[in-house]
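Exercise (ungraded).
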Amino acid sequence: MTVKNTTVRFFVFLCVLMIVAVASVSAGGAEEREDGPQTFRMYWNTNHRYDVYQQVIDDFAEEHNLVVDLETFLWPDMRTKLLTDFSGGTVPDLIQVPAPWISEFGANGLLMDMTEQIAAWPESSDWFEPAWIEVTSEGRRYGMKNHHTTFGLFYNRDLFREAGLDPDAPPQSLREFRDYMEVIAEELGPDILGFAFDQDAGYLVNFFANSDVPQLIDDTEIAINTPEVRQSLEILQEIAANEWALIAEPGASYQTARRAFIEGSVAMMLSGPWDLASLADLAPDMDYGIAVPPHLEGVEPRTIVAGTAMGIPVGANHSDLAWELMQRLTDLEIQVAATQEAGMLMPRQSWADDPRVQELPGVSDFARIVPFAVPFDIEAASRGLSDIMWSGGGGDLTTQLYQNIIYNRRSASEALETYVREGNRLLNQ
Amino acid sequence: MKISYSDRLSATGYLFVLPAALVMILFTLYPFILALWNSLFTGFAQNLQYVGLQNYIRLFTSSRFWNSLFVTILFTAVSSGISGFLGFLAANWLVSRGVRFGQFFTAIIFLPYVVTPAIATLVWQYMFDRRFGILNAALNSVGLNGVAWLGSPVSAMLSLILVQVWFTVGYNLVIFSSGLQAIPKDYYESASIDGATESQQVRLITLPLIVPTVVLVLVLSLLSGFVNSFVIAQILTGGGPFRATEVLMLLIYKTAFEGFDIPRANALTLVMFLLLFSTSYMLQKWQDRVYHGLY
């Protein structure tokens, strides 16, 4: 036996050992014990872990003799974890994700097609119609929204008063918005500014989407290449260029604009009902209002619809139980209780009509804005064109356009043209 | 069959190697082959279609890839160069002068290396903040205007390099210190008697004798530059503004987890592996050519 032969045999031995190890690990991982309680795995957003949901989950676990493994993530970590799970075939039973992900994952065959189940469920007719659009791809429904929200312009009435502005007259047009910004910078700057631009490009949609351009894609082309959109972006760029607004830096966290608003260093911010609870906690004495984000004069405004949806991954061990839990979590009483607990907006029409909801401050403001909300880029999501998406933090091309506007490197018009050209190329690829 | 003594000896050697080899095969070789195979497909999870070298062709014709490659090389080369140079200067100063409290200084400079990069980078993010950051507060206190550290392509790249140098300079100092301490003092004494100046001693004695240390520092800086660049760029700038800090590792992450394209991300990873491997190999070859031993 030569050394060379020994090396070859050693290598072959190692490979066999490795294959056996991999096979046994894979087989072991797939099995679940029959005797003890079954484990039900679900992924949820860290900030949506409300007491009322926990109670529903606890009751559900007890009734079915289950151990519920509830893992919570922030969105970027959730996406990384989910895509790894989809690749490795180790999916959870139920997921709560931003609604556009549902149609994106559904289009890729990663979520169960729930069209028939939802159609047979009588309560589905109580959902706002746009809430279904977001979870649909090529006519098939892959999930169900459980939070149905949108954006509003939060404004600090005390700072408006200090700057000599009418505290009950938030800016309605972009021109007014720009003028307010100038006044606040002159009267209260540089320590206090008018507005905070987020690091998230998606927020921009709330300023330029309108009844003529409610969707990003119009059949085979990008629809936002209009004079109105261009003019809106130019006004926003002027605000940024004059440093009348706080500009979050590229890697800044979601909290940057919120922190500035809460501590009173900016007079306005764009946000949603998900921040009502933290505002109440951290700035209980702040006198603030919520309005429809300003648009160009003469256009009918639109905001981008936001919120989360639940879906069941293909290959989930307990898909029937997951469907049952989805129904329980979206029961009207649970939705009202979640709103009372966290100020979150919900997708049921009967929820919007409920007097307990209508009397809640903040929530009622958003209830007025929700009818303006549209699933602006849902088609991009279902076509898998993440580069041109606005929701979920914004795709690469969107980020380039946004950064061109708030960091003033190129004219807004030129930046928009680049976005449209590249977007059209991707659309027609 | 009778097994000879030498065969028994080599078998024993293989047994000792077995655990490490298994780990290598399971966690390095197996995923490597899997990634190579996957990079020849398109699609996701079970819905894969074979496309041959299409992912690589798309890669090499993509301006975003070339930008990313340029950004990575720039980041790695400049940060490795500065960090290596400062590490060498500090080590030479501490070793040749026998500075009092030298170990204390070394520990202080080494400290960033043991901090979790993500946590330290978050702290840097607060320090770089344009309005509330301590760096701009310091500039303002001496009457200078604050800087948008992360707001322009050039300043963002410089900020990233600053953080990477801060991370690695202490590690380079320690490696250079051990390399310098291995050079016999007699060489310097003889040179000094012959009238060599301090800079001549560094150029003609120190540098030729620490070639292996230089190569080690370069290879480690290269690896650390590629790996750390992801954490630093992701937290500080997210690759922006205008992709000015979109390093390869970040592009791989975005391609896989934002763009939903794991085969293409695998192709990118393999290109990056080839780049790292060939550079390390060339550095090793350079060392073989120029280094003639310590004694």
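Further reading is listed at the end of the chapter. For now, observe: Chain B touches chain A through 47 residues (CB under 8 Å). The first helix of chain B runs from residue 5 to 38.
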